[in-house]
Structure formats: structure tokens, C-alpha cells
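Hi there,

I know you've been waiting on this one. I reran it after we fixed the sequence typo, so this is the corrected version. Both the input and the resulting structure follow.
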Amino acid sequence: IAETGSGKTVAFGLPLCHYVLTLPEEIKDRVADQGPLAIVLAPTRELALQIDVEFQKLLSRQKQIKSFAIVGGQEILRQAQELRQVLGPELLIITPGPT
């Protein structure tokens, strides 16, 4: 039960991003057609959105990896439209919940 801002997301996010960056280009090139390379499942929508903000910070200085959050309780059509605009995020941050 660590405090907010203690680095929990970076502790698993940085190795995950490093792993995705080291994958061969032919694998990364298929993400838009075959799906993401990693999925982070969070227990609440608030936590999923916080994790996505932290991933955005981690990924802000490069253009090879994109992340996207899909959370329950928000309009599914809007999220689907936004997901299409991202064009194949390598990392998905998701949480279950009612739509």
C-alpha cells in the first residue's frame, strides 16, 4: 500500500515499455491489424486512467509506442472512435465495468 507518487506505475511500466521497444519491427508493424502487444488490467477506472497518464509521460519523448485506456462506465462508441484515431496502440490499459 504505497503512497501516490511513489513510482509503482514506473516500476512495471518502464520494463514493459523497454520490452516493447526491443521487439522486432515486423512485430510492431502488425499491431494495427493484430492487436496490442501488452494489456494492463486495472481494478478501477480511476486507476486505469491514472496509469494511462503515467504511461503517456513515460512515452512522451518517443513516437514508437502508443498507449490507450479503455474503461467501463464510459460511452463505448466514443472510446471506439478514439481508439481508431490512435491507429493501433501497442499498450492498452483497461478495466472492466458497466457500459
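Quick highlight: The two ends are 29 Å apart (CA to CA).

Best,
R. S.
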